[in-house]
Amino acid sequence: MLDKGNHPYIPNSLQEIKQEMMREIGIRSIEELFSDIPEKFRLKRKLNVPEKGLSEFEVKKHVEALLSRSETCNDMPVFLGAGCWPHYVPAVVKEIAQRSEFLTSYTPYQPETSQGMLQALFEYQSMICEITGMGVANCSMYDWASALGEAARMAARVKGRHEILIPKIISPERAAALKVYAEPAGISVRQVEFDAEKGHINLEDLRNDISDKTAAVYIENPSYLGFIETQVDEISKETHANDALFIVGVDPTSLGILRPPGDYEADIVIGEAQPLGNPMNFGGPLLGIFTCREDMALVRQMPGRIIGMTTTQDGTKNGFCMTLQTREQHIRREKATSNICSNEALCSVVSAVYMALLGPEGLRELGETVMYNANYAVHLLSKIGGVKAPVFKSAHFKEFTVNLDETGLSVKDVNQKLLGRRIHGGKDVSSEFSELGQTALYCVTEMHSRDEIESLAAALEGILGGR
Predict the structure, then answer these.
(1) What does residue 401 show for φ and ψ, rounded to 5 degrees?
(2) Structural domain boundaries enclosing 416
(3) Are 187 and 163 in contact (CB under 8 A)?
(4) Each residue of 252-291: pLDDT tens digit?
(5) Beta strand pairing call for 245-250 and 216-220
(6) Beta bridge partners of 271
(7) Continuous segment of H or E residues that includes residue 270
(8) pTM of the model
């Protein structure tokens, strides 16, 4: 009979073993292991876990009951994006990604990876290069935010400078991640003001801020708030005139209808590939895009891994290999530029299948559908009394802002009322950009039918009219 607190399958749950381990590392209690956590964040009570264990069947029923309380984008229209967007994933994408050859491949960042996985990753890189107009792509980052952080550090290494300019209108979470990457490397991050009418970067402010200390200028197109930046050529010219790198962040679903960044001489292109076949999965995993010009001074500083294609010695067969990889496991730790691991490989395969399935015409059709649906929603919402949609006088792609200042209601209140009508409204950005007042960021994609968009407009009009 085991003592209370001991576990039949965990040897170190025995008290005498715990005591021996604590003596070895020089502590008197388990709590000392958490001494670096401030008191205010510590739980002051025991966990609410039943003393008596449950059977597997009971645990399954309990978990299913908890899950049944959640509702997903399949249960109601969801107009929430802001970095993770609702898009349709064709059945063939899931079917191929779930094949055991891909799903169970061990450590697909290692040189001994199978030829099949290497080819799939090579195809992903090739298609990402094609849609962005760039020369070289790695086979993915964790997400857009980590790609931005790595791009900033890469630019600093290449240019020997330690300042990055970014737009003021950017996801606060993305900006926070950039800061985490930049500060340890001694990189300062400065924000460039935006045009109050159109939302675009203020070119005069950019010219005043850029200097011989600037390693790179970063923009997003479309922006975090959905508008399309139309000054890309001017920004590119100003950046290169100051010998800085031009970094562009993209939503790849827009590249079927918008100019690829390679066309306006971007040096590094990053973004989020989640909408390319990867479901939202309650927020992750995501998939960061990272590409650059075909310049070895840049390529050798790229994070992640790059898959290349070669031939057998007799030239009769193609073969694939890990051409460059800058993981800390394979080169001197202080010179490593990435520790991207296994999970991104499967997400890259998913995106490769999705892009191959759509092809150039499918990507263009997707972009047109998304833009049409979003602008149809703008058209309907802008007719509602007291609503301003969008806030900026610019063309928008997938997302757009809706301001409620004249209605006297807050975004939070309206979103609660929309949920009561089984509609998930847009993201409340009033605390992120206080100068925009009570503003929400709405997302509309190919997933939103005409009826759902009209239902949103009718519901919002009813809420604001007190019905």
Answers:
(1) -95, 145
(2) 362-464
(3) yes
(4) 999 999 999 999 999 999 999 999 999 998 888 899 999 9
(5) parallel
(6) 250, 289
(7) strand 268-272
(8) 0.88
